[in-house]
Amino acid sequence: MEALLEEILDNASQYKKLGKPASYIPELAKGDVNDLGIYVISSNGQAFRAGDYKKQFTIQSVVKPILLLLVLMDNGIDEVRSRIGVEATGKPFDAINVTDQTLLSQHINPMVNMGAIAMCSLIKGKDYNERFERLLELTRKLAGNPNIHLDEAVYLSEKRTGNKNRALAFMLKSYGMLDDDVEDVLDCYFKACSISVTCKDLARIAYVFASRGKLPISDERVFPAELARFVNAVLVTCGMYDGSGDFAVRVGVPAKSGVGGGIMAVVPTRMGIGIFSPGLDEKGNSLAGTKALEELSHRMYLSIF
Amino acid sequence: MEALLEEILDNASQYKKLGKPASYIPELAKGDVNDLGIYVISSNGQAFRAGDYKKQFTIQSVVKPILLLLVLMDNGIDEVRSRIGVEATGKPFDAINVTDQTLLSQHINPMVNMGAIAMCSLIKGKDYNERFERLLELTRKLAGNPNIHLDEAVYLSEKRTGNKNRALAFMLKSYGMLDDDVEDVLDCYFKACSISVTCKDLARIAYVFASRGKLPISDERVFPAELARFVNAVLVTCGMYDGSGDFAVRVGVPAKSGVGGGIMAVVPTRMGIGIFSPGLDEKGNSLAGTKALEELSHRMYLSIF
Amino acid sequence: MEALLEEILDNASQYKKLGKPASYIPELAKGDVNDLGIYVISSNGQAFRAGDYKKQFTIQSVVKPILLLLVLMDNGIDEVRSRIGVEATGKPFDAINVTDQTLLSQHINPMVNMGAIAMCSLIKGKDYNERFERLLELTRKLAGNPNIHLDEAVYLSEKRTGNKNRALAFMLKSYGMLDDDVEDVLDCYFKACSISVTCKDLARIAYVFASRGKLPISDERVFPAELARFVNAVLVTCGMYDGSGDFAVRVGVPAKSGVGGGIMAVVPTRMGIGIFSPGLDEKGNSLAGTKALEELSHRMYLSIF
Amino acid sequence: MEALLEEILDNASQYKKLGKPASYIPELAKGDVNDLGIYVISSNGQAFRAGDYKKQFTIQSVVKPILLLLVLMDNGIDEVRSRIGVEATGKPFDAINVTDQTLLSQHINPMVNMGAIAMCSLIKGKDYNERFERLLELTRKLAGNPNIHLDEAVYLSEKRTGNKNRALAFMLKSYGMLDDDVEDVLDCYFKACSISVTCKDLARIAYVFASRGKLPISDERVFPAELARFVNAVLVTCGMYDGSGDFAVRVGVPAKSGVGGGIMAVVPTRMGIGIFSPGLDEKGNSLAGTKALEELSHRMYLSIF
């Protein structure tokens, strides 16, 4: 299996430099496009790895399924559905889904920035510090890694430059979809995006979604199976931004990418996969990472379709 | 199993009259909202049925996955991908996906009208009669029913009133995405939508997609597994119009609805389902049909996520 | 005065080759970008001219104000207002002003193609031949030139290739905004765009709008003053496509351009101007023509603002 | 003349209660829909008035042409044109003119909120207090009224609830179209909208635009004529929001409305008009005010077209 992973990374490495690291904050632009790593945890809990799987990177949008899980655990499916839609928007992740029409909850989804910002306000907690701490704790629990922490430099950089996210948050607020102080909510959102992880962390988190709520080895149930099905379904329809349809036909598994270069791929009942390569395609998905996943899917018949 | 189906139809029947039959052509408006039927073929080829499963209705958009399959068989995945996108558009099925920007192939997908009209021109054949006949033959083959035929009244009604589809076709033509005579292409498209089927037919067709290309019982392979995966993936992301995300979280299987009231649902490796109830929700999906599928999915753990 | 016109054409001639002739039909692409002509009729009926003012070209969208005038004369302001809006759309002339929303009359205006096509159906007449003949007669009357005729080659070329206009017409029809046969209406529209004119013709027509309905010299009233005010107002807000705002601040008079290279400019109470140069800017307005008008406006204080 | 004004207000008063005061801030919702007043200054400086012309109201968007004038005086036409467009957007005043495309200066204009916010940053001044003071001083100068002041209650109310404007400002900032601190810029904008005026003030300001830069009676030139032509042109194409086309055909003069119920109408070389009635139509323009202007225009042939 590790030989297969090595071979797949070898084949994908030609795409590493065809992508570009995210450049909207200086911290992300530093990403080394030579990096490419993968970590796989199979259904019996066994782990396989290849390449730069130990590298740290910020989770960015890969935190969105975890955030969605937390607000589902805190509020239940019905309450979350009443506030945030689940349809693909047909638009990029940071699009303003409103022109001269009223903004409605069904115009946003949990995998675009506007939906994720709205979700921060649905986490239970006495203030936004506690809300972020609860999100960080859940991330650690899913990953089985108590050392997961915030990348302060990225967080401060996001906070300083995140004006489009501020615009999105004020848009939500002006349509009555966000009650709390915008800067408080955004602080939680910027921190959430700046959690530092490795391929192994993502693979472990993916594993829990794949096993529909149970941790590897111990089989401890962290959340009900129906919440996993909910999150996995959202990942297939909206997880890879406006490249989700392409990813579904080429790879065929629930997955979430982040502009930090990470992808978390969930193969229900079979495996959790974490992959990392900072060169992004024009839709913001890791280019070599997607190529590696495509080959892995073909070689191991991973597509759920 | 049939007792379960009866019970599910019973529970769903309260929704029958909350939907409305399609009214854009008089023939469809005649649909009886009291009708509700289901037909299931399980992985060993065994069949179960309940309610009005024998009723005839026009296939409408449920023909789109068959049309997609045919053009994939005729042209291969790469050629089809170069002409028609696979992303959800975030818009209704008959939306004009262009305002002041150039229309590109990636702005349409095989499950919206514009994409389906474009696909008609990709069927191999010496003229549009032959193209339609080949589509009809494939439909009969997948359904195992040589008696499937055109509903002339619906076809003529569609042809007479289909001005929005004419607009869509001329739009494609003006952007160089349709070479042939618009009225010829549309004639094929209107006929395709007017094929008359039953729940049993849809269940049989769904079964072949679920078994990734093999007919029930005989196990005869009709098309390669990778084409089934392609079509099933497109169904999950775009099959239920701009209600696809909602359907994915609530039901969780590849499916296609038509404004005739039919839904074809594909449970990979497990079953093919055909369902019919002409009352539609505001997105054009059978309301009682969707409710019945939702309960069936929960009761039998059908979600692929 | 003619010396001034010569000087202005001299100054504008540097822009002649920076524009491009319309290329969507071969006949228009033949336009000679070296052509630049102007014709001015002042309030006492005196005429001034310079450059290639004798060249024939097709009227194209400059027919829209004449078409608007005719339907106003035939139906009255209230009836026309109930069917066609007057707001700038903020979009190019051939934009599809509809995505997933209902198309309403207020979404189109008489200076965009969709509005002009709808207006063809409002001309009184027993058939579309008679309707076009009445439009041609009015054009001749306004221009004082009984020899104005159809350019058959351009007409046939437009008819053969006008698929985007067909899409627009079917869109109108599908929303109940066009009752008649689409090809009949479009035939009238394509003929209307293909009327062959000179700068002198446009200047004479402009003069009648400037004098609010009276012919030069004879002072014969052709239409009520309030219709002139209506048309002139529409020209200022929408006459130069989505370059109307720019034209208003730079030139400041009601005007209409066509992709044939003509511009008709109306200086209320003072003069009618016809100008011609086939090189277009990216919005479809004659580039050198606009530059010449800008200088003429500054030199003679023509702005109405 | 005052008898005519009385008669016109009488006729328009039936529309007073068909409109609704702006309700987005409590201060504006207090507007008395029974109020209707008009003030006219003719070309020789003579004044006429009728109705509630002494009532105070906040200037709201009527400040936009003054703001545009100030930034034109401070920066020149070319510099302003390089940063802010002049085309009608075809959308409401507070629309987000961006979805998934880059926001460009040409997508905004000085009469929509986004453009006005951007203009605040173009006023010369060492800080935003000084910038606002300079705008207030210019307003006083144009109105010939040194007592014009800020309505503190409206200003604080706008500041507290102006989240959509915050969204617009952060959008500008994220696209590099606003350098300064968003809250500083918005503070200036909210103050600008909250300047308290009367019909007389608006009539005097309109007079100066009508006389192309000269004060009444003294004939003192405050700004060059070409800036008046620029502002008046922008008013005709964009001054009445997405009702500008309708206003051009019905009234036919440059004008600006505000949600406070005021309208300033400029009749070049002839008169300045201030009108007030807080009931607004669905586009945000004073309903009875527009009706009164329409009749005044017809009775006195004010249309410039």
- Bulk shape of chain A: globular
Corresponding CATH architecture of the largest domain in chain A: 3-Layer(aba) Sandwich
The overall pLDDT of chain A, averaged over residues, is 93
What CATH first level of the largest domain in chain A would be assigned?
Answer: Alpha Beta
CATH topology of the largest domain in chain A: Beta-lactamase
The helix-and-strand class of chain A reads: alpha+beta
Alpha-carbon distance between the termini of chain A? 23 Å
Strand content of chain A: 5-15%
Summary of the model, kept short:
The structure is a homotetramer of 305-residue chains. By secondary structure, chain A is α+β, with helices and mostly antiparallel strands.
Explain what the structure shows.
The structure is a homotetramer of 305-residue chains. The first copy, chain A, has 2 domains: 2-58 and 196-299, DD-peptidase/beta-lactamase superfamily (Beta-lactamase, 3-Layer(aba) Sandwich); 61-195, Beta-lactamase. By secondary structure, chain A is of the alpha+beta class. The first copy, chain A, has helices at residues 2-12, 26-29, 63-75, 77-83, 113-120, 128-143, 152-161, 163-174, 182-193, 199-210, 225-238, 244-250, 287-300, and strands at 37-42, 47-51, 57-58, 149-150, 195-197, 255-257, 262-267, 271-276. Helix content of chain A is 46%, strand content 11%. The model of chain A has no long low-confidence stretch (mean pLDDT 93). Chain A has a 5-stranded antiparallel beta sheet. Chain A is built from 13 helices and 8 strands. In chain A, a hairpin with a 4-residue loop joins strand 1 and strand 2. In chain A, helix 5 packs across helix 9 and helix 6 (128-143) packs across helix 10 (199-210). Chain A binds chain B through residues 85-91, 109, 228-230, 232-234, 236-238, 242-246, 248-249, 252, 254, 268, 303-305, and chain B through 85-91, 109, 228-230, 232-234, 236-238, 242-246, 248-249, 252, 254, 268, 303-305.
